[in-house]
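Q: Convert this sequence to structure tokens.
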Amino acid sequence: MPAGRYTVLDGSGRPVGTEAFRCAPGPAGWRYFADIETSVPESHREVVDFVVDAAWRPVRLRIETGSHSLEVLAEGDRLAGTLDGEPVEVSFGPDVELDYLSPCFNAVTAVRLGRTAEIDVVYLRPVTCEPVMVRQRYERHGEEEVDTPVGRFHGTRWQYTALTTGWSRPLWVAGDVVVAYEDLFELAEYDPGRAGPFPLG
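A:
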């Protein structure tokens, strides 16, 4: 069970919080759980609990941000559940991804895609969890080594681009862990457990 802590950055490299996480195979496929503390847009704590199936498709997601609460299940062509206690339903499907401001969503999308692609994404706005449909591009650059504060990893380099804004940064995925994400997430602590990606040397 890989576990660790990211330093959360503001998109330009300035530290704004932390994300303590653990992830592991589970009954459905794979599960990621995180406790987040961030000062953006104001100081608050969050919980992200994300489950995907064996094909890395979303099954269940829970996000608690203190002021807002989201729980949804993927049911065929829709995401359905509650947002702040009120029913919420969003069109979904096998060619649509799910995203929020946590590196687990990038890991799931990258592992499932395995190739360069432009995709439709249900993006949950930070804190409010309001769903909006956006377009993103994941460009796979192949295998390479990357230095992090907790060691050097062998991983797959991707270039993420938010097509609606043009914001773009490289990220590296090793196994089921984002080990580096320029200007957004930096590994500060890491324990690979028995099955996680191990630092080199």
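The chain has a mean pLDDT of 96.
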